[in-house]
Specification:
By secondary structure, the protein is an alpha+beta fold. It contains 2 helices and 6 strands; from the N terminus they run αβαβββββ.
């Protein structure tokens, strides 16, 4: 389950940022997860709950909000932008395969709240 390792990295980043900003406890975290990362929201949520129980930085009722980012492409030939469905990467406008991925590869902390 690579989601545990991913969440370990997220908590490490939260710890560093909270320390820099004088935040003692975090109550809410917003995470953006691109579909190309292959990270699954439910296991990420479970891993967050494990860290929430172990790490005093995270309040015991801290909430993780996950927003999934779709896989987005742009056709380099016709410049059509579109969302990938079922991992079919051909341009729906011109059927071309000359595409550029423009979204869905990121996993990042969008925000966090604390005191």
């Amino acid at each position: 389950m690579h989601e545990y390792s991913l969440m370990e990295g997220v908590v490490r980043q939260l710890r560093a940022s909270a320390s820099e900003n004088g935040i003692k406890q975090i109550s809410r975290v917003g995470l953006v997860v691109g579909k190309m990362t292959m990270a699954v929201p439910d296991p990420l949520q479970f891993a967050f709950e494990v860290f929430r129980q172990q790490d005093p930085l995270l309040k015991e009722d801290a909430v993780l909000e996950i927003r999934e980012e779709p896989i987005m492409c742009e056709c380099k030939d016709c410049h059509h932008s579109y969302e990938i469905m079922n991992y079919e990467f051909l341009c729906p406008s011109c059927s071309g395969a000359n595409i550029k991925l423009v979204g869905g590869r990121d996993l990042y902390i969008d925000f966090y709240e604390g005191e």
